[in-house]
Amino acid sequence: xxxxxxxxxxxxxxxxxxxxxxxxxxxxxxxxxxxxxxxxxxxxxxxxxxxxxxxxxxxxxxxxxxxxxxxxxxxxxxxxxxxxxxxxxxxxxxxxxxxxxxxxxxxxxxxxxxxxxxxxxxxxxxxxxxxxxxxxxxxxxxxxxxxxxxxxxxxxxxxxxxxxxxxxxxxxxxxxxxxxxxxxxxxxxxxxxxxxxxxxxxxxxxxxxxxxxxxxxxxxxxxxxxxxxxxxxxxxxxxxxxxxxxxxxxxxxxxxxxxxxxxxxxxxxxxxxxxxxxxxxxxxxxxxxxxxxxxxxxxxxxxxxxxxxxxxx
Length: 313
Ligand SMILES: C[C@@](CO)(OP(=O)(O)O)[C@H](O)COP(=O)(O)OP(=O)(O)OC[C@H]1O[C@@H](n2ccc(N)nc2=O)[C@H](O)[C@@H]1O
Ligand SMILES: Nc1ncnc2c1ncn2[C@@H]1O[C@H](COP(=O)(O)OP(=O)(O)O)[C@@H](O)[C@H]1O
Prior knowledge:
Blueprint lengths: L1 H6 L1 E2 L8 E6 L2 E10 L5 E8 L4 E9 L2 E6 L13 H15 L6 E7 L10 H16 L6 H9 L5 H5 L5 E5 L3 E4 L6 E7 L6 H6 L19 H8 L7 H7 L3 H9 L4 E6 L6 E5 L2 H13 L3 E7 L10
This protein binds 4-diphosphocytidyl-2-C-methyl-D-erythritol 2-phosphate (SUD) and adenosine-5'-diphosphate (ADP).
EC number: 2.7.1.148
Catalytic activity: 4-CDP-2-C-methyl-D-erythritol + ATP = 4-CDP-2-C-methyl-D-erythritol 2-phosphate + ADP + H(+)
Organism: Albimonas donghaensis
């Protein structure tokens, strides 16, 4: 598949690792909670996009599986079996072995640039990147739908991340994916106050589970202003409980909302990372710089246009 080959690269020619794959931040433009399953997991409705702000996963073929960590947020993470990259690699290898393949190992290196436990699915994006990369490197050739199924066993957010950078609507607990409406190119600034905010703790404080699925215009949205007008009828229902867990969410949202050129400021996922949505690059870059100078982690990145809805494979 041409698109898949282009998304990840063989980087030897550039002097890098043999194989590499970006792991983009997952941003929930809205997040409604529709109910709760008997097992306690919540039913969601969320429009998910992937700005060009990412961890990087690299790999070399090897006999065994190993992981080294790098980057500004690498130090706080385990490189063992509890790292979602290793868990995903093992799950993919197990599936392939059950189906008669004999995948070799991989020497993996994760450059961790996204803050951990921060509502932008960094761990899920890393796991999804591992599934995509090793699927190619090991010559398995599973379709993304199979990678998503393997990922779901490790985390509710992994299926949507398998399809990155394609914007999608996520429902169920995260396993039901449908096409997003057509979206324009726009810019996101992500800002995080530096306080890890565990997803389970936020869901544990949730008082309202009576949201409805958002309705999107069939013709989609031609520019950022039209998208923001549609988002006005939606919210992130995890914001109230996240503010209880991490009160700094309030100041983060205030700082983004005050940035010149911002059209919308909202929290992503279970927080504490918040996003500002911009129509143009220059004010987005300026806002990220100002937030960094104010002591937060902040990055700006473009979201590529989403074409008219097409089947998900
Ligand atoms: C809230 C979301 C929105 O995109 O993002 P994040 O804030 O994590 O980025 C996701 O649904 C998170 O997905 P993920 O981070 O993979 O969650 P998991 O590891 O599967 O679950 C962590 C914990 O969150 C709660 N959980 C998660 C997903 C879900 N649909 N209902 C839940 O109640 C459960 O308490 C679970 O034990
Ligand atoms: N590669 C990884 N990157 C980030 N977190 C990881 C990774 N592997 C395992 N984890 C664990 O997953 C949890 C969720 O992390 P993350 O996906 O960054 O946050 P969130 O679910 O809020 O978006 C963290 O508490 C962390 O310990």
